[in-house]
Specification:
Strand content: 5-15%
Number of strands: 9
Largest sheet: 5 strands, mixed
Number of helices: 9
Oligomer: single chain
Shape: globular
Order of helices and strands: HHHHEHHEEHHEEEEEEH
Distance between the termini: 82 Å
Strand order of the largest sheet: 5-3-4-8-9
Radius of gyration: 24 Å
Length: 344
């Protein structure tokens, strides 16, 4: 007997309907996947800041003061200079031992010749530190310093040839210490000699400016926790810093063009300056924006806000729409003004 059943396949219309449904489901699912990935990256960034905050606190516990901030952008960390204001390297370099990176901090400490010192600095400046990079922005790898390579920096670095050679490729961080609500030039070349006396004399010309540094970071200052008189839970320690997304990897942005182990400069420091005549011009956190120039600002690649670790070790997200005056107060360690915790 013949089988009288008719065999059916998909019609073209049915196939198109199925494809359309799958496309709609993917379109609905993709934002949720992207949001989940960003949430994971934001959590990792918060964990980075938590590690940094703990390192600062352990540094303060061991030495009696928070990490010092070096002598200027022409200087980098010296493994034989200790942790006091005689250390030419900035806060990133100074906390390495408190992040279980003692060996990286100590590279070159046993060097016998200038060439050995240079090679050690080259190696260190090309060594990534995962906790210093926000995963929403860029991976922790070494990048070219196009600014120096193009010759736009006219001065000869004090630690040349070590600094000049290492600056052609190096690691850059995504976090900055808070120097308070100061509005001034804080990318300074630095003294011309390794002598602490010369360095101190050099900074005499910046005494007024140094006195304006109302945050936890200041040049040639050993900042103790007792100096955070507004309370550690009300004072920024370190936060994400703004960067141009078009310049994440090429080193052509002035606030992101030096190795993160250098001294006092705008690659490792940011401000909460408040401009009273026009608050909209204040340096409140900014989302990373192509083509912008916010080299003095804190900022982030996260759409939800900019993350900070406070002086008590807590990590909080600060809205891009925070009141500029509240932001200023959070950056100032000793203004004596109250802060409403619900305002940020």
């Amino acid at each position: 007997m013949r089988d009288s059943r008719r065999l059916h396949g998909f019609t073209l219309v049915e196939l198109l309907v199925v494809i359309t449904i799958i496309g709609i489901l993917i379109a609905l699912l993709l934002p949720a996947v992207q949001a989940a990935r960003e949430a994971a990256r934001r959590a990792q960034c918060a964990n980075n800041l938590k590690q940094i905050g703990l390192a600062w606190m352990n540094h303060e516990s061991a030495n009696g003061y928070y990490p010092t901030n070096g002598w200027g952008y022409a200087w980098t960390g010296d493994p034989n200079a200790g942790f006091s204001k005689s250390q030419p390297g900035g806060w990133v370099y100074n906390i390495l031992p408190y992040m279980e990176l003692q060996s990286l901090h100590d590279l070159g400490s046993d060097a016998k010749t200038a060439a050995d010192v240079a090679n050690a600095i080259h190696t260190r400046d090309k060594t990534p530190v995962v906790a210093m990079n926000c995963p929403s922005r860029r991976p922790a790898v070494a990048y070219t310093n196009a600014q120096y390579h193009s010759g736009s920096f006219s001065g000869a670095p004090v630690q040349s040839p070590a600094m000049s050679a290492s600056s052609l490729v190096h690691v850059r961080g995504d976090y900055a210490a808070c120097l308070g609500d100061v509005c001034d030039n804080f990318y300074i070349y630095g003294p011309s000699s390794c002598s602490l006396n010369v360095a101190t004399s050099y900074w005499d010309g910046y005494k007024t400016y140094v006195g304006q540094c109302s945050g936890v970071a200041a040049p040639l200052v050993e900042m103790a926790v007792a100096q955070i008189t507004d309370g550690t839970s009300n004072t920024y320690m370190v936060g994400e810093r703004w960067c141009d997304p078009d310049r994440y990897t090429d080193g052509k942005y002035d606030g992101d063009d030096w190795a993160m182990f250098t001294g006092w400069q705008d690659d490792i420091l940011r401000s909460t300056w408040y401009y009273e005549p026009n608050p909209s011009l204040s340096w409140t956190p900014m989302p990373d924006t192509p083509g912008g120039d916010y080299r003095h600002y804190f900022g982030s690649a996260h759409p939800s806000g900019c993350q900070f670790v406070f002086c008590d070790g807590s990590v909080q997200t600060i809205s891009y729409t925070i009141n500029p005056e509240i932001h200023r107060r959070l950056g100032n360690r000793h203004d004596g003004l109250p802060i409403d915790g619900n305002s940020y």
